[in-house]
Amino acid sequence: MNRKLYKSNQNKMIAGVCGGLGEFFDVDPTLIRLLWVIFALAAGSGLLVYIASAIIIPEG
Q1: Can you tell me whether residue 15 is helix, strand or coil?
Q2: φ/ψ of residue 13, rounded to 5
Q3: Contacts of 57 (CB under 8 A, 6+ apart)
Q4: Contact of 1 with 48, CB cutoff 8 Å
Q5: What pLDDT is attached to residue 24?
Q6: Cα–Cα distances in Å, from 21 out to 40, 57?
Q7: CA distance 5 to 20
Q8: Residues 37-51: pLDDT tens digits?
């Protein structure tokens, strides 16, 4: 089983990062988005990590 992480084209809101993570881990992308917002508000660096992920993760 050789899976690769890609940005989602179907579950895309902003850049497709959360949709891609949801597809990769077989989890609802809404849950990933919610966790990402909580991380951004709690740690403060969530927005930077999201932007870096949008740049690093390839298109699907």
Answers
A1: coil
A2: -110, -60
A3: 5, 6, 7, 17, 20
A4: no
A5: 92
A6: 16, 10
A7: 7
A8: 888 888 778 888 889
Domain extent for 12: 1-60
Q: How many independent structural domains does the chain possess?
A: 1
Phi, then psi, of 7 in degrees rounded to 5: -70, 140
Residue type, 7: K
In whole angstroms, give the CA distance from residue 26 to residue 22.
6
Cα(15)–Cα(28) distance, integer angstroms: 16
What tokens appear for 2 in the block?
Answer: 């050789």
For the entire predicted model, the pTM comes to 0.83
CB atoms within 10 A of CB 7: 21
